[in-house]
UniProtKB/TrEMBL annotation:
Species classification: Bacteria, Pseudomonadati, Bacteroidota, Flavobacteriia, Flavobacteriales
Residue intervals of the Tetrapyrrole biosynthesis uroporphyrinogen III synthase domain: 19-207
InterPro entries: 4pyrrol_syn_uPrphyn_synt_sf, 4pyrrol_synth_uPrphyn_synth, UROS/Hem4
PANTHER family per the UniProt record, alphabetical: UROPORPHYRINOGEN III SYNTHASE, UROPORPHYRINOGEN-III SYNTHASE
GO terms for MF: uroporphyrinogen-III synthase activity
One term under GO cellular component: cytosol
GO BP: any one term: uroporphyrinogen III biosynthetic process
Name of the protein in question: Uroporphyrinogen-III synthase
């Protein structure tokens, strides 16, 4: 039986999908996210949110009504779905931050943006926008903390964020495990560590699971 480690706790239906396909599944959260107190001052005409954690933090703010009607630019369809649930209007969706920056620079360079981000975030998007003179400010709305755990041997490991990769590698070593990543940004955190990487073709937990099942079905 193929042994799979998920580096985040899955929803029951997500885990069941793997179990039904004949996998043995172990789950552990390798990062913890916590909403931070923040002020909704000087929010620009457009909002950028690249994670569900940022959406949840913003949606819980007592003054969220002041910004809910502003157009939102986001990464990932799951992030877009969550924004829709909270009553936001999604203007653009991209598969990753680099693609989102390209869309903004090409079509919205004259507009102003506020980026709601975590304390650990990659530089691609804000750097690209600033280099193209797109007006941008940033509000830190959540923090990510590593929660590394020493784990035994598995056939496959599912990764969902660069910080999750870093937390895992801080106390574990990859040898011949297959690594299944939610997107290119997460996969890039495994560069020079392993070549055994499969990347989901849609940045979602479900698609990462589908890629895992398909890989072992065809091998």
């Amino acid at each position: 039986m193929t042994r799979v480690l998920s580096t985040k706790i899955l929803k029951p239906n997500q885990k069941q999908f793997l179990l039904n396909a004949g996998f043995s599944v172990v789950e552990a959260d390798f990062i913890r996210t916590t909403a931070l107190p923040f002020q909704l001052h000087d929010v620009a005409d457009n909002l950028i949110l690249t994670s569900q954690n940022a959406v949840n933090a913003l949606a819980e703010h007592p003054e969220v009504q002041d910004v809910r009607r502003k157009p939102v630019f986001c990464v990932g369809h799951q992030t877009a779905d969550l924004l829709d649930e909270f009553g936001f209007t999604v203007q653009e969706i991209a598969d990753n931050a680099k693609e989102l920056a390209e869309v903004i620079i090409k079509n919205y360079a004259a507009d102003t943006f506020t980026f709601f981000a975590g304390n650990i975030r990659r530089n691609e998007l804000p750097l690209a926008l600033m280099e193209s003179d797109v007006e941008l400010n940033e509000i830190e709305v959540y923090e990510t903390e590593p929660t590394p755990q020493k784990i035994g041997k598995f056939d496959a490991v599912l990764f969902f964020s660069p910080s999750g990769v870093q937390s895992f590698l801080s106390v574990n070593t990859l040898t011949d495990e297959m690594c299944f990543c939610i997107g290119n940004t997460t996969a890039s955190a495994l560069e020079k560590i392993t070549d055994s990487i499969v990347i989901a073709n849609q940045p979602s937990v479900e698609n990462t699971i589908i890629q895992t099942i398909n890989y072992y079905k065809s091998s």
